[in-house]
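Task card 7
Instruction: Convert sequence to structure tokens.
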Amino acid sequence: MESSAELLISLALILLAARITSSIATGLGLPSVFGVLVAGVLLGPSVTGLIHPSAALEGMSSIGVVLLLFVAGIETDLVEMRRVGIAATLAAVGGVAMPMAAAAGLAMAFGYGTSEAVFIGTIMTATSVTVSAHVLKEAGFLQSRIGSAILGAAVIDDIIGVVVLTVVVSIEGGGGAGDLVRLAVFIPAALIAGHFITKMAAVRLVLMETREHRFLEVLALVLAFAWAAQQIGGLAAISGAYLAGVMFGRTILQEDLADFGNLIGYALFAPIFFVTTGMSADLAGLRAVPVFTALLLVVAVATKVVGCYGGARLGRFTHAESLAVGTGMIARGEVALVIAVLGHQSGVIGDNTYTASIAVTLLTTLAAPLLLRFALPRQRPAAEPASAESEHRLELASQIEQLGG
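Output:
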């Protein structure tokens, strides 16, 4: 068991290394998160071994990814997302179908059985936009057409991926149609319940005199949304956190919660998440199946870009916008890791396949911020005038402040 002293020095090293490497990356014109991921690789067991994965760090990392997606949800422009809904849906479908088919085909070409090959394809369908959301925010594209399409496609991708996983596991004897029914019931129920919960909470919380208590209650609700998505809906916890962010982003608390989320999320928990993600890289394991791992990496990157690019183009995005959307969906991240662990524990995939899948997941996560930064247009999107909804929200907040004063 990790002692408190070990945890304290580990956190100190993580935060210091994240600060140094992010500054170096920014100085080189790279996304800061790229440097933080590299810091994790250097600190982890594969290189220096200064820090080892632990339950405490894993727990803080889980909170970090939840907070990051909560902030991304708060800053999501729903008007813009509705405008890009068709493109996001088509991009998600293309980004699931092509990687699954290509990865499964590659695995069968290397002699893997049908069940193992299909599960490898399932791993490659996953998308993690935690890294992409950070890069989009840093580059000023989070609320643009590109950012809205990537975030929207990632949510839809997550739902499709869960359905695919449920079907695959059911075929292998580990699940049933009940999981699909649960998912179909949970999504609309969560949207309806979330709307009323956040609306009632915002009305009460905005009248609180102490902002600290307000933030504590919102944080508790965000964690509850994340728990419900994972335990009740069978989705990733980050989907619930993102949904909570979108809901709270439509209230008069939007600006205060965005500042709070950025402070607690990006100052502490985000570096822990990105560093621990890099730490889990097992560079020695790449020697077991080097050719298959290399080809799987190429397939994972190419099919996500092409599949999502094609969907975005069908949704009437420009070539540059579609390329950025495809590139922003490359990272597999924590969702793919969970699927890989599930397959390994159930015996569907072997040790070598598991190692290759983990390696590709981490390499795509490392490559995503670099490639996305180059794919984004050089000019930031122009700030649009405030919408009627935003103006009404600000006016209402002013009236409440006057009543309270």
